[in-house]
């Protein structure tokens, strides 16, 4: 493999390693697209099996009343019949009849027309009498609405100035007919709970004290209304008052205890209800823990209910999905109350009905759990849904009329009793429509997560969890008629698992990049600000400004090399720096055209020239060299600026460059003189330092020779001194006369330690020979003693305990410690031989 190929492969490996996370992200997007395609096919197959009813406008028709009136409400009675309620301005008429307020109509779904019919139940004697008394005793009586609660229908009338002043007529639903009950059931007419969750009030034990105190909501979000603003934070940090959301409060001097704060945990969402000190209205917010964003939604005050399958919340003016999608409709309606939830038999669609008591206005929000979206809201004054799913509604007008416009819409909210033709031989039919819809809704949630930015907290952990839950919950996902959607689900799960570890690395890199970028941006902002407002009275001011701008641009450009940097923001800063640099450069050229512009540099030349002659130390020469280099670079920059600028008068350019070049040449002469002076100073200072270092080596040699008591230590200390001499040779390599002295000293040191080593070796050999001879004499005596003994027991006892035997062993040990293992082994061998011979 050639060097070029090897370098190319290494570069590819580095690129692959740095882009592992991006590769996994692309893989997830690919599998998400495959899952979406298969879900679309499954949805089409589902519609073919179970049928599909699209929400669309069928027709616009008119209904006619006997008198001019203001339409108020309608309600279905089944069998395509409905009641129509309205209010008539009676004029001189003394009595109000039932027919002046309520009429019954039939609806022909073939021709989409309405026909007034006679309803016998409206002629019920008790009802007619109660109705007459109501209008007789309450002058301000007017019809408000119909309400279906359980198996009863209520006709609601307002009899006073407020919406709470009501009277009702209660009817029982019996086989599609209405049976009058009474007019004493006002207390039964009520709206359901307007919040399908419990508000919890913060307590003192939730407080976190510090420089900027706040309340901790289960350590998930932190809230306070002190220091002039209401702040929502995601970090339990009382050292700073900054957060992800803030807005002004009316009383800036309130303490942490002064505000009323309530909260409700709804999955990833945390609803907040806050009333700052001495304010009349609560403020409502929704905080999403996953995306760490807070949105103010005051519509939560009136009502808020949960979406199916814990998908989020819905309210009169919009909805908020757990994954972070929020939609707020531009609806100019206040005080909207939740009235009912209407599910479709297919399990896919839900209609949420909100009602405004003061005006009788309805807001109908249709939510699809697969798409997780709400269709365009329907604002009307009355609506009714028939058994076949067709819905009629109208919008009241300000003037009384006989002809009232009703729109007819086709919807999926048909009666559960309606028979729908289905393909009952299909595998999907065996599973059931609701089962398939529920699985598709969960898969749709997975697709939404895949399309989320990776700033979504625990994104890949959630992807693994959701994918695993879907695979485990629905056994049929790998069936052919389900388009084997288990396959992309499994791929998504595996890719998300791989991304978890890589994401941790990316988070660290992004954090470092963000911190570095913010640091450079802040520095650039300061430099830009100074460059804009700074006044330049001398050429040095211009040079300093240009130098800072050039440095700032270099640092900004260097940010492009960081992974996950904000290139758009970087380009914006670079462009801004280029523009300001151009402006300052033009100002610099104008200033340079003045005669006295370069005078500060001429003065500096004279000072530097005088400083060269006054130098007494090498350190001073080094500092002076740095000053000369700095001025030289400034002059180079000025020449570069003038050369690159488009100056109309060329003589101006020539004059400026000639002036700068003249000063520049003086600096070159000063620099040459400085080098000569520095060499002289180095010679003087170097000799003194060299002699001191050489003296240190001599002292070290004397000391090391004195403490070297073995040949091994001689080698050790010799190496240390040789290293010192090598370092000394490197430091004074410029001085040839010093190098010869170092070589002489190296030879002297080597000879001294070699002599000491030879002496120590000879002394050791003499001592070891003496020890050996002494041991042999003792062994000779031991051998005679062993030979005089008569039994093996006596021989063993003697050999094990005699002091002379121990003495021989001690001598052998001393020889071994001295490093003479040969003599030591020889003594041990002779002692053993004497024992064995006596034993035989």
Describe the structure in brief.
This protein is an alpha+beta fold. It has a seven-stranded antiparallel beta sheet, with no helix packed on it. A five-stranded antiparallel beta sheet has the order 9-15-16-17-18, with no helix packed on it. Strand 15 (260-266) and strand 16 (269-275) form a beta hairpin.
Walk me through the structure.
The model is unreliable at 1-18 (pLDDT under 50). A hairpin with a 4-residue loop joins strand 24 (349-356) and strand 25 (361-368). Strands 4-3-2-1-30-29-28 form a seven-stranded antiparallel beta sheet, with no helix packed on it. Strands 9-15-16-17-18 form a five-stranded antiparallel beta sheet, with no helix packed on it. The chain has a five-stranded antiparallel beta sheet with strand order 10-11-12-13-14, with no helix packed on it. It is built from 17 helices and 30 strands. Helix 10 (599-613) packs parallel to helix 12 and helix 14 (736-788) packs antiparallel against helix 16. The longest helix is centred in the C-terminal third of the chain and has 58 residues, at 650-707. It is of the alpha+beta class and 840 residues long.
